[in-house]
């Protein structure tokens, strides 16, 4: 009986391993990704790009049509990664003929691992400057922080905490200022009576708000759509603001000139570029940033993202990306190309040998 049970378990394990490493699972995974791509594209129209990425491609399970459970992008990619690893370890033969296929599989694995590292550890923000302006911080696209500083502090030191996840009843100290969250709204609008919660809306356009309570009974309303609010406690004037999260840059960047070319007879931009000056450690240098020619400095990559015009003045927006795994797509592409080349050479050689043998 024990032998029969062991044989049955072994048979089930072999069948499971065969399925997990087989091409059938690969095809299923690719079909799931196709459905997610189509569904996410449709979903994006109403809910925006950020929410589509979060609900469809960064989730383990997604509800299609609002009620049908379906594998999310993260679950699907992990399954495909496991499928590729097991296929290379168990399904592909360890022969010279299969060497190229092994390299292709590990190139694809590296590509998937690189995408996870970019998602988990990457950081995206932006810097918007008018000509002559400079900045030593970048601003997050979507995330907000509650910031406090004292006007009597000549250094203007700012204390901040991520607003995401804060809720009513949370207590903490920012700098030397103790406070309590009396109410927090992920999306709000200002009314004559204070703040009013707003349901739904594009996450990229939401404006959070909060009501803060301080020792002694003082309260203050802060809203992302307003200027920093003044609060006087103990003779000290504080400023409170809900703002996009700031990330310090390891240097100062100044916009010297913004140049835009338009298509003849239209106002549509043909190309645009920024001439910037980088100040770091007492030294400075000038760099041009334009399409497909980003600036890479101190682990950051600056891309020419967009521009705006305000009262005859033009501002330039540079996307700032910190991605520790930026080199992985290049390495994986190289491995995939090498594997395809080796596989082609091996197959070509075997065909030539068989032809000569037949002659």
What does this entry look like structurally?
The chain has 3 domains: 152 residues, no CATH class; 86 residues, no CATH class; 105 residues, no CATH class. The termini are far apart. The chain is of the alpha+beta class and 359 residues long. Strands 3, 4, 5, 12, 13, 14, 15, 16, 17 and 18 form a 10-stranded antiparallel sheet that branches. Helix content is 35%, strand content 40%.
Layout: helices, strands, pairs:
Elements: H1 2-20, H2 23-47, H3 49-57, E1 61-64, E2 68-71, H4 73-91, H5 99-121, E3 123-130, E4 134-150, E5 158-162, E6 171-174, E7 177-185, E8 188-191, E9 194-197, E10 209-213, E11 219-223, E12 229-233, E13 236-262, E14 269-280, E15 283-290, E16 295-297, E17 300-310, E18 313-322, H6 328-358
Antiparallel strand pairs: 1-2, 3-4, 3-18, 4-5, 4-13, 6-7, 7-10, 8-9, 10-11, 12-13, 13-14, 14-15, 16-17, 17-18
State the main characteristics.
6 helices; 4-stranded antiparallel beta sheet; 359 residues; globular; alpha+beta; 18 strands; 3 domains; 10-stranded antiparallel beta sheet
How would you sum up this structure in a few lines?
With 359 residues, this protein is α+β, with helices and mostly antiparallel strands.
Give the assembly state of these chains. single chain
- What's the number of domains? 3
Average pLDDT over all residues: 89
Structure class: alpha+beta
What is the N-to-C order of secondary-structure elements (H for helix, E for strand)?
HHHEEHHEEEEEEEEEEEEEEEEH
Beta-strand content estimate: 35-45%
Shape: globular
- Give a count of the beta strands, DSSP E runs of length 2 or more: 18
Low-confidence stretches: none
Radius of gyration: 28 Å
Helical coverage, percent range? 25-40%
Biggest sheet record = 10 strands, antiparallel
